[in-house]
TrEMBL record:
Gene3D superfamilies: Leucine Aminopeptidase, subunit E, domain 1. Transmembrane segments: none annotated. It comes from the Bacteria. Residues 1-181 form the Macro domain. InterPro entries: Macro_dom, Macro_dom-like. It comes from Kushneria indalinina DSM 14324. This is O-acetyl-ADP-ribose deacetylase (Regulator of RNase III).
Length: 184
């Protein structure tokens, strides 16, 4: 786990590490439509949170999202055994070369920030949504995330953390940020 670097006057923190270890008001889960857990960060979050998380997700499916959580939407559960108080589940788009899904990926970040703000949260941490199994090109995803954060964080009380799992991802993010003129 690295010490966070900051952008946007300290409102955006960027680090390498395991998101399940972060003590924040909410971590965001790159979930799938079923909300029943899966591989990657979703699996790691379910393992660390314990079986209560799956039960809470089953209740969300029953009461709010009987057909599953659509792309770009968000749903809230407690964090159970996680150090994070809550989990915001969102479904990133599966990358497709011929269809522009950037708005859907942006929506995951926008709606997570909105929900966190409505809940009076101060701190939220994101994994690199859609850049694993869902195949979104990493640099393109970073540009989308930076755009959302630059638009939203100055007008909110939130401190957002981008938690990259690998050193290479952190380095790639730094390169994109510097190419786009974001100062640390
Ligand atoms: P998606 O299906 O949205 O692509 P994945 O879980 O496959 O989701 O990957 C999303 C990102 O989460 C990838 O960059 C992957 O390296 C990262 N990741 C996997 N496990 C963790 C973890 N424990 N903490 C933070 N990031 C993680």
């Amino acid at each position: 786990m690295t010490t966070p670097m900051t952008y946007m006057s300290g409102r955006l923190q960027v680090m390498q590490g395991d998101i399940t270890a972060l003590e924040v008001d909410a971590i965001v889960n790159a979930a799938n439509h079923s909300l029943m857990g899966g591989g990657g960060v979703d699996g790691a979050i379910h393992r660390a949170a314990g079986p209560e998380l799956k039960k809470a997700c089953e209740a969300l499916r029953r009461d709010q999202w009987p057909d599953g959580l659509p792309d770009g939407e968000v749903a809230l559960t407690p964090g159970f055994n996680l150090p994070a108080r809550h989990v915001i589940h969102t479904v990133g788009p599966v990358y497709a070369k011929t269809i522009d899904k950037s708005d859907l990926l942006a929506s995951c970040y926008q709606k997570s920030l909105t929900l966190a703000g409505e809940q009076g949260m101060n701190t939220i941490a994101f994994p690199a949504i859609s850049t694993g199994v869902y195949g979104y090109p990493f640099d393109q995803a970073c540009e989308i995330v930076l755009g959302v954060m630059a638009e939203r964080l100055p007008h909110s009380d939130l401190i957002a953390t981008l938690c990259f799992f690998g050193e290479k991802d952190l380095e790639a993010f730094r390169n994109v940020a510097s190419r786009l003129g974001y100062q640390r």
